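Hey, I'm writing a tutorial for new members on how sequence and structure tokens pair up, and I'd like a real worked example in the thread rather than a made-up one. If someone can provide the structure for the chain below, I'll link this post from the tutorial.
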Amino acid sequence: MLRVEMHEKKMPFTGPLLGGLQEGKTVVVIGRILATAGRFHVNLQCGSESNADIALHFNPRYDGLATVVLNTLQNSNWGSEERKSDSFLLQNQPFILQILVTKETYKISVNGKYFMDYKHRIPFTRVDTIVVEKLMDLDFIGYQNPVGVPYKAVINGGLQPENDIVVYGVPNPDSKMMEFNLRHRYGVAFHYKSLFEENVVVCNTFENGKWGAEERSGALPFKKDQLFQVTISCNKEQFTVWVNGQQAHTYKHRYAKLEDIDVFEFYGDMQLFFVKI
């Protein structure tokens, strides 16, 4: 079962991991590292107190050669550091940090790419708190099962103009296609398909048992093997698709009963990290 928590962009942040860490689940942190950041850290802790044990201290540093330092604090004493100088976490860029809990290790990935394993020095069952500090903008913290593709979710109450849909993912290196659909019980109000080999986006509507005329546009806003953030918003006249903060496409409504649009689907050759509806 997917279980996520949205949080305000307030730093530093301390929050509970509901139910404590469990094998097979993933901690997800989404944000942007400030250009002025010297370092920041994400801690998985045994409690929220200032003297709490820290099972995993994940500490990217930019004051010199870009390095990530990992460590454990136990009984107020730091253990031996583990360092890796090849960090995928770039200043002034969005990132997704994933920490998968396994029996023996934390498996750490950044932007969909494996980074390293960190062996448990404190039983992960003791961990119940996450702390994020220092110079970054925080968009989302979640504790969840992996998100699978294809993805399908119900929009409770139907689509509302003030409610954006936000998707984070990474197209596979050999990706040929990604698409999303906003559906109602009789058809598809908004079909948005990215075709990598043709470098084109196709938009359309399916109603009365058939597809309408395609709207095609070039300059695909996605790149293979690179993190994207898609925001789908709508008003009374049209849908607007934003990719990584830039307006990519608009599509005027052919089916205007927004309250009837109650299913969101995502398909494709990709890793899907998080969907907010």
